[in-house]
Specification:
By secondary structure, this protein is an alpha/beta fold. It is 41% helix and 19% strand. It is built from nine helices and eleven strands.
């Protein structure tokens, strides 16, 4: 089992405490967390810093922890531009990047110049184009949506052939794409443990059908968490943020330490090899408690 934390991204009325964020990242690294991850919300109710910019900030304030995006929203980016950003981040971080990508919600496509028509075909072609940019010194690509002729798009990532590519989603077609194009599946924080377990069963069936070694494919899950000896107070702490994000509150793990350990053990039993522990409040205090009281029991 490996454990990860979120990279601070939320702002309050445009203000962001960079010193606090840097201290959080350094402490997470000291405590031995495997990695730290950003989200991409695009358009949403919570003011959130951009994922690539926040990853660059995190790379400057850490030395060992891996850094990832769970996930970039593919249709919000041009593939060459996103490939360039990821490669640059991999170089700046010394080869510590993990890249997640998903289709994301369809209701904001027009704001990013994307069309729902041919969306999946454009998405998968974009992944193939990004991989070409990461693995070839000069790229020739004759696609339906994008074309390049002997184009140099350096630098290439430090990691070869490229940073691990995680894919998100919940529809069976998305899970099939994860197996076909990705190195791992990252379950969303808005999915319950039971829903995640069903997703993992589908992923494993697809791996088997593709004749792919499961050892070459990783599984992760974001879990919103809050430790509090008072179970009612813990539920109240997670209710507001999750209702705003997902319109539901039943996906969190919260309560006294034994309840949190049991909830996270169920996520691990469902197939998660990496669990992104995402506090909903008192991030610094929860970070210390998770490292001292929960992680050792798992």
């Amino acid at each position: 089992m490996r454990f990860a934390v979120p990279i601070p991204q939320h702002t309050t009325e445009g203000a962001f405490d960079t010193d606090r964020a840097a201290a959080f990242l350094r402490r997470a690294e000291e405590l031995g967390f495997h990695s730290a991850w950003v989200q991409e919300t695009g358009i949403g109710p919570v003011p959130t810093l951009g994922p690539a910019e926040t990853l660059a900030f995190a790379a400057a304030h850490t030395r060992r922890m891996r850094l990832g995006a769970a996930v970039f929203i593919g249709p919000h980016h041009l593939p060459v531009q996103l490939a360039k950003s990821v490669a640059s981040l991999d170089v700046l971080s010394g080869g510590r990047m993990e890249t997640g990508i998903a289709l994301g919600p369809k209701n904001h496509l027009a704001a990013f110049g994307a069309s729902p028509e041919g969306l999946v075909a454009r998405f998968t072609e974009g992944i193939r184009l990004m991989k070409a940019c990461w693995t070839q010194d000069r790229v020739t690509f004759d696609g339906r949506f994008w074309q390049l002729a002997d184009a140099a798009i350096g630098p290439r990532p430090l990691q070869r052939p490229h940073p691990p590519l995680w894919m998100g989603g919940h529809h069976p077609a998305a899970l099939r794409r994860a197996v076909r194009y990705g190195d791992g599946f990252f379950g969303a924080g808005g999915a319950s443990t039971a829903e995640f377990a069903a997703h993992v069963r589908t992923v494993r069936a697809e791996l088997d059908a593709a004749g792919r070694d499961p050892a070459t494919f990783s599984v992760a899950k974001r879990v919103y968490v809050h430790i509090d000896e008072n179970a009612g107070r813990a539920r109240a702490a997670v209710a507001g943020p999750l209702e705003k994000l997902y319109g539901r509150t039943d996906t969190a793990v919260c309560g006294p330490v034994p309840a949190c350990v049991e909830g996270l053990r169920q996520v691990a039993d469902a197939g998660a090899e990496l669990i992104l522990l995402h506090p909903v409040a008192d991030e610094e205090g929860q970070l210390e408690r998770l490292a001292a009281e929960v992680v050792p029991l798992l």
